[in-house]
Amino acid sequence: MQLHVINTGFFKLDGGAMFGVVPKTIWQKTNPADAHNLCTWAMRCLLIEDGGKLILIDNGIGSKQSHDFFKHYYLHGEDTLTGSLQACGYSENDVTDMFLTHLHFDHCGGGVKKEGDRLQLVFKNAVYWSNEAHWQWATQPNAREKASFLKENIFPMQESGHLKFINEKDSRSPFNDIEIFYASGHTDKMMIPKIRYKGYTLCYMADLLPSVGHIPLPYVMGYDTRPLLTLEEKEKFLKEAAANNYILFLEHDPVNECCTVKETERGVRLDRTFSLKEIL
Questions:
Q1: Is 193 helix (H, G, I), strand (E, B) or coil?
Q2: Is 94 helix (H, G, I), strand (E, B) or coil?
């Protein structure tokens, strides 16, 4: 097995929304905001080479939305999904499996493109993996999340015949050496892959832990649909991570690719940060 970081660029979101009830005077120490109270966030994906499989976890925001849509998110940076894949020696056509932690636009928008007036899969040879409970949640969205579940990102997977569901009732995945932790505080049945790699367990944290600044338990996003459940899920997961020295791969942290955590008198806190290359 080989792992590759796939950077797809940066975007901006409101700092208050990203940290919920935590005051700006505290969160801005780790995630400084601009004059409009916006913080920069990464869209960092993970590519897994495993035998004949080439598995991509999440795919960023994509480029098919209108200017009116993108103007709210201030996309920037030189990295792109295509360019990052090419830097690893691959193209979109080589991806065999597109694993989607959840279907919010900044996690799945890069999986569908617009050609003329038609929507096409970017990874035309890949199976697109979700789970049935989250699919139902995303395709029949509540008013709170409706703006995050864009039909043009979601339905082409099903209409193409490339969509498959993972059984959300257990921790198994379709892949060797990958288990799944299901978290429903942010959105229903978000999937957190736990990858066994070179004696480590590497966890792709998606929106359960967007950045190192979110490690303290009360630092819960305003976007979460069930914040008290997020508290429980974070506490359970981070205690397990500290006890077992898990490597936490951070999708949205603008600076840090990976971290570990440790138990302290104040609860679980950051241990150290490092790049994925340091364990390859």
A1: strand
A2: helix
